[in-house]
Write a structure and sequence with these properties.
375 residues; alpha/beta; TIM Barrel; 2 domains; eight-stranded parallel β-sheet; 51% helix; binds zinc ion
């Protein structure tokens, strides 16, 4: 009688079960499970996609944070990269934001913003992200004395260089911090006007509860009058009513997150009817306890209801995965089919701010990929 060593990996990819068995079927289970998962990871990695919900300050990984801090002669309160990584456990959005703002303090020069942005684009390109729409938070920097120009010029130069080097296209979305007042947002909008050509839209992020979209109605009106498109985080921790407010008061073209829309039947009907995109971020939702288990994530229901949902990484340096890891984790947790995954990738282009011809070309690339990778 032979004995077989088996290793079974949980669907969430977080646990392994190792043992020895006389039953060859256990070995077969292992083989089939791993083969299926590896095939899925490879399929997702090669799939052309866009990323639409990505905070550039949330891509500042610990290694880069330490490197930039050293260059700028800034003391970090953690002794090493490992010690810093150990504190990346959050009980809610605010808990994460405290660390996020602390991390961003190392960013001082145009070179810092360039290097952070370049590093993300290099990673995204390696994951077959062909187009991305990137958030940046100027107030996080201008409030500590960094010039608006320093921030935007560093980021923008990296976008231009990455387009030339990797062919990845990118657009910038300037977010207002919703825990600050509207006057501060208006001042930021005025600072952005000389750089209008570099920014496609304005958005709303940071601490959601207690800071409803209606608080920013005037600044969003001003931004729209200047020709900016609008998006807003809504329904992540906040109620479905905040999503209504973003639609009605801010005239958004996309809702970022939108999970709690699922609690309001009329809102779901409205989002489906208008095909309003939702930029969903599974690993972020898990890390910030918006869901306590990815198996309970509403994404599958959203797809079944024909909502225009997309997969994104939000703040990948803090949440344990870039866009492909988000696709893989949610595909495993919810048993998504390859057809559903391809639909999510097509949605990512459909929901983007590319023009119609560009969208069509990108979606054709997905169809070509499907043609050569059995779906
Ligand atoms: Zn976000």
């Amino acid at each position: 009688m032979s004995h077989y060593l088996y290793i079974l990996q949980s669907k969430s990819l977080s646990k392994f079960n190792i043992g020895i068995s006389e039953n060859p079927e256990r070995r077969l289970d292992f083989h089939n499970t791993i083969t299926k998962e590896i095939q899925m990871i490879k399929f997702i990695n090669g799939l052309p996609k866009a990323e639409l919900h990505l905070h550039i300050e949330g891509t500042l990984n610990p290694e880069l944070m330490f490197k930039i801090a050293k260059r700028n002669k800034i003391e970090i309160k953690y002794k090493s990269v490992d010690e810093l990584k150990k504190v990346y456990h959050f009980s809610n959005l605010q808990d994460f934001l405290n660390l996020y703002y602390q991390g961003a303090e190392v960013l001082r020069t145009e070179e810092d913003f360039y290097e952070m942005t370049w590093s993300y684009l290099e990673k995204a390109s390696s994951q077959n992200v062909l187009h991305c729409e990137i958030f940046f938070d100027p107030q996080t920097h201008t409030n500590r004395g960094i010039k608006f120009e320093t921030v935007i010029n560093g980021i923008h130069k990296a976008l231009t260089d990455a387009k030339n080097d990797f062919g990845i296209s990118a657009k910038l979305i300037m977010c207002f911090l919703r825990d600050l007042d509207e006057d501060s947002a208006i001042k930021t909008l005025q600072e952005a006007l000389p750089h209008k050509d570099k920014i496609i839209a304005v958005g709303l992020d940071s601490a959601e509860i207690g800071n409803p979209p209606s608080k920013f109605k005037n600044v969003f009106n001003l931004a729209r009058n200047e020709g900016f498109l609008t998006v807003a985080h809504a329904g992540e921790e906040g109620p479905a009513n905040y999503v209504w407010e973003a639609l009605e008061h801010l005239n958004v073209s996309r809702i970022d997150h939108g999970n709690n829309s699922m609690n309001d039947k009329d809102l779901i009907d409205q989002l489906v009817k208008s095909q309003m995109p939702l930029t969903v971020c599974p690993l972020s939702n898990l890390k910030l306890k918006v869901v306590d288990d990815l198996k309970k994530h509403p994404l599958k229901k959203m797809i079944q209801k024909n909502l225009l949902v997309t997969i994104n990484s939000d703040d990948p340096a803090y949440f344990g995965g870039y866009v492909n890891e988000n696709y893989t984790a949610i595909a495993n947790a919810l048993d998504l089919s390859k057809e559903e995954i391809c639909k999510l990738a097509k949605n990512s282009f459909q929901a983007s701010f590319l023009d119609d011809d560009q969208k069509e070309r990108m979606i054709e690339k997905i169809d070509e990929y499907i043609g050569t990778h059995q779906v």
